[in-house]
Amino acid sequence: MSDPLLWHRLQFAFTIVYHYLFPQLTMGLALLIVVLKSVALRTGRPAWNDAARFWIRIFGLNFALGVVTGVPLEFQFGTNWAAFSAATGGVIGQTLAMEGIFAFFLESSFLALLVWGERRLGPRRHYAAALALLAGSWLSGYFIVATNAFMQHPVGYQVAADGRLELARLGEFVFNPWAIAQFLHNQMAAVVTAAFVMAAVGAFWLLRDSHREVARVSLATGVVAGLVAALLVAFPTGHHQGRLVAAHQPVTLAAMEGRFASGPRAPLAMIGQPNVPERKLDNPIVLPAVLSWIAYGDFSANVRGLEAFPEDAWPTNIELLYYAFHVMVGLGTLFIAVMALAALLLARGRLERSRPMLWVLALAFPFPYIANTAGWMVAELGRQPWLVYDVLRTAAGASPTVHGGSVLFTGLGFAGLYLVLGVLFLALVGSEILHGPRPFAADAAARGAHS
Questions:
Q1: In the prediction, which pLDDT does 110 show?
Q2: Structural domains of the chain, count
C-alpha cells in the first residue's frame, strides 16, 4: 500500500470515473436535443420545443459539472504522470489541444446561445445552434477518444533520439482505426445513457400525472433512441471493437474471457469465476465456438489463451477485468430487452397505461452509467501493464518525485469536494425535474390560439 504507483492509479481512476458521469449524458443529450428540435421545427408542436428547452437546461448543468471535474484531469498529467507526459506529450498533446481550442469553445459558445438566445435567434437559428452544439460535443469526444486510442493502439509516431515519442504522421494519428471504432462505440453508449435518463424522467412525470405532453415526448424519444442505440452498441460497433482487441491485444481478449488455454472452437464464457492461481475458469457456462467467430469470423479459429503469453504481459488485474467486461455485456443485453419491450408497448399505445413498465423505466437510469463505467474499465484494465500499449509501461509513466502520502492526501480532498459537488448537482437537477418544462412565451400563445 506504500507504493506511490498504486495511489497514482487509484486517484486518476476515481477522478476520471467521476468526471465521465457528466460527459456521457451531455454527448447523448446533444443528439436527442437535435431530434426534439427537428420535430418541433417540422411540426410546430409546442410540446417538442418545451421538451428540448427542458433538456437543454439539464445539458447545461451537466456541462458545468463536466468542466469543473475535467480540469483536474489535465493537471494530473503533470502532477501524477509527469514521466508519461514528458514521453508522449509531443503526440497526445495535439489532440488534447484541439479538444480544448476547437471543440470545447464551439460547444460552450453555442450552449450559451441555446440557453439564453431562443427569443433573439428564432426557431431556425436556434435549431442551427443545437446542431453546432452537437458538432462541438461530439468533436470534443472524438479528440479525447483519439488520445486514448493512441494509448491502446499507437500509430503515426516515431521515437526521437532522446527516447521521447514524436508525431510523425498527423492523419494516421488522428484517424487511427482504433479511434474511429472506439468513438462510434462510445457515442452509442452515451446515447443509451441519455435515452434512459430521458425515458426515466418522462415515466416519472406520467406516474405523477404531471406535464403529460412533454412527458409523452420525453418517454417516446427516450424509448426509441434507447432501443436503436443499445442495438448499435452491440452490433456493429461493439463487435468491431472486439475484433480490434483480438487483432492487436490478444492477451487482453484472453483475460476478458478468463481463457487460459489456447485452442480452436473457443467457447464464449457467459458466466464463471476466473481462478488465476489454478489457471482455469471455475463453474463456467459457455457457448461453444462463439468466441472464435466473434474474434476472427470463423467458428474453428484458434484463440490464444493467457498461457500463450509471458506473465509479465498479462493484464495486472485479470479478475476485475473479467467481471467488468461481463457486467458491461450483461447490462447491454438487458438494455436491449427493456427498450424492446417498452418500444412494443409504445407501438401498441399501451406504454403510458403500463405502470409496471413505467416504474422499470423510471428506476433503470443508473444502469447505463454502470455499464459505461464498466466499459471504460475494460479498456483501461485491458491495456495494462502498459500506458502506451507495447511502448511505455505504466510503472515508467508516474511522477518519480511525488510520494504516496501526497497522492492520498489530494485524493481525499478530491473525494470531499466531489461529494459536495455531487449533492449540489443532484439538488439542482431534482429541482428542475420537479419544476418541469418552462413553456416559451411564443409557444404559450400558440397553444392559446389552437384552443
A1: 95
A2: 1
